[in-house]
User: Which sequence fits this backbone?
């Protein structure tokens, strides 16, 4: 019976989530701010009305319409919701998977593109970014021509590098590809740029968003927008009732108070600027530009693993990217937190170097 599990799955490690315990948690690109107290009672009142004995609306119609309006999805474009962006990526992969088909993405990038390709039995093609983490357009176009990927993922901004790729280069990729190109805008609240308005201009363009980074990571809610031609097919592999009733009610309530979350995003962007400035003052530290709610750092002399462990001893948990190797050797990634968390991180980092 040992051969029941595919070798590709046996070779994987389960996705690991670190336990922050009592540490300051700056490892997962979460919004550090809670729902304001004055809104909690209103939210709980909505939740108390949830009919937990009934299945939720399978299409999450009310929530979907609210997201369409808030995310400014162009008229004529369809929308599908997922249990986080991960489920949407999996739905797309399941819908197109056939022997010999591939998923392509720049690297380093979001790890789930590769993992889900493996889950569904597709080949994964990672195209290295340039040294400054910009798109290597000639390499991307060559890989597209050679492999003809069914799906291309372009994270905008990119995770874990935090930069926005060059838009003309992305448009060239969209125009060149015979497969679908998904612009993953998970960090849109902090980016200031989007491809959403371009939906409809390119038949093969899709845009993916999430509410996680705006402060609702615990809900696990993502959305995919694009031509009904594609969205209607992806809907066939969506599991029934994938968006539970508590998520539907909570997300709709949050959208009704979107100004609160927009103010939090503005505070995070302001803190990002402060943190970038402070980190650039530290010798022997390469600080990469960020258009997300996290910052990528490279240590030039100190050992990244030792600094990471020292930070934990000083009560701060960030992400150690050094084990990934390659372009991320000696790199650490820190989430932009609340002001006191950011000050504590800078102090702990100076002590750890």
Assistant:
């Amino acid at each position: 019976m040992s051969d029941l599990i595919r070798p590709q799955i046996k070779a994987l490690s389960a996705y690991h989530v670190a336990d922050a315990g009592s540490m300051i948690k700056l490892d997962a690109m979460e919004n550090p701010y809670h729902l304001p107290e004055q809104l909690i009672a209103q939210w709980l009142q909505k939740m108390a009305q949830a009919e937990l004995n009934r299945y939720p609306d399978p299409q999450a119609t009310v929530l979907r319409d609210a997201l369409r309006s808030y995310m400014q999805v162009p008229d004529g474009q369809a929308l599908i919701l997922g249990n986080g962006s991960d489920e949407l990526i999996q739905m797309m992969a399941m819908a197109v998977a056939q022997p010999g088909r591939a998923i392509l993405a720049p690297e380093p990038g979001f790890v789930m593109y590769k993992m889900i390709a493996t889950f569904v039995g597709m080949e994964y093609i990672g195209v290295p970014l340039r040294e400054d983490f910009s798109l290597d357009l000639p390499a991307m176009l060559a890989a597209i021509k050679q492999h003809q990927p069914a799906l291309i993922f372009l994270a905008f901004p990119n995770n874990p590098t935090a930069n926005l790729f060059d838009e003309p280069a992305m448009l060239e990729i969209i125009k060149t590809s015979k497969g679908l190109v998904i612009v993953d805008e998970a960090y849109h609240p902090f980016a200031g740029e989007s491809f959403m308005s371009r939906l409809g201009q390119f038949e093969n363009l899709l845009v993916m968003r999430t509410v996680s980074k705006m402060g609702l990571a615990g809900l696990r809610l993502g959305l995919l927008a694009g031509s009904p031609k594609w969205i209607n097919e992806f809907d066939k592999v969506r599991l029934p009732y994938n968006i539970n009733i508590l998520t539907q009610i909570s997300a709709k309530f949050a959208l009704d108070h979107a100004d609160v979350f927009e103010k939090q995003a503005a505070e995070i962007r302001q803190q990002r600027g402060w943190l970038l400035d402070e980190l650039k003052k530290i010798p022997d530290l390469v600080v990469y530009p960020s258009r997300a709610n996290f910052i990528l750092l490279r240590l030039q002399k100190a050992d990244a693993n030792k600094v990471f462990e020292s930070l934990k001893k000083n009560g701060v948990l960030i992400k150690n990217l050094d084990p990934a190797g390659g372009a991320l050797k000696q790199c650490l990634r820190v989430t932009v937190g609340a002001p006191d968390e950011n000050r504590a991180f800078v102090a702990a980092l100076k002590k750890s170097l």
Summary: The CA atoms of residues 27 and 318 lie 4 Å apart.
